[in-house]
Design a protein that fits this description.
With about 150 residues, this protein is of the alpha/beta class. About 50% of the residues lie in helices and about 10% in strands. It has helices at about 15-25, 35-40, 45-50, 55-70, 90-95, 105-110, 125-145, and strands spanning about 5-10, 30, 75, 95-100. Strands 2-3-1-4 form a 4-stranded parallel β-sheet, sandwiched between helices. Helix 2 (about 35-40) packs across helix 4 and helix 3 (about 45-50) crosses helix 4. It starts with a strand and ends in a 6-residue tail after the last helix.
Length: about 150
């Protein structure tokens, strides 16, 4: 296999944790797309959201996805919203293997509660609001994030 493996899933689904383990097992390099963006932009994702808004962040993210297609043997942990914007899912499917990590809304809520202040889309939400947000978002994203593709 000479092409990248893209890990997708809701924020908190374990893309980075699983990605590091998978990359090590396969002898591939590991790329966290959010960390890559932060290094390229020389600022945090939260700061990009605060300064420029989500639309600008999604444009930056799209460029990072296109750039990642040149990564070769790499496991790439994408941001949770990557497959849902622009042509990202089609690009990942065309240039690599895309794997969706499915986690229950309740488990995601448990994982995200302690970290919500560092995540712009869920900052300040109560447990109930967070669970409702996760359920709603997963329902809206399901047709996009679960597009199967056989290589």
């Amino acid at each position: 296999m000479q092409y990248p493996i893209y890990l997708t899933g809701f924020m908190g689904s374990g893309k980075s944790t699983f990605g590091r383990l998978l990359a090590r097992e396969l002898g591939f390099k590991f790329i966290d797309l959010d960390k890559y963006i932060e290094e390229e932009e020389r600022t945090s994702i939260s700061e990009i959201f605060a300064r420029y808004g989500e639309e600008k962040f999604r444009e930056i993210e799209r460029l990072a996805v296109h750039e990642s297609t040149k990564s070769g043997k790499a496991v790439i942990a994408t941001g949770g919203g990557v497959p849902c914007h622009f042509d990202n899912i089609e690009i990942m499917n065309k240039h690599g293997l895309t794997i969706y990590l499915k986690v229950s809304p309740e488990a995601l809520t448990d994982r995200l509660m302690p970290a919500r202040e560092h995540r712009p889309l869920i900052a300040g939400k109560s447990r109930e609001e967070l669970l409702a947000f996760i359920r709603s978002t997963l329902h809206k994203e399901a047709p996009i994030t679960r597009k199967p593709r056989l290589r």
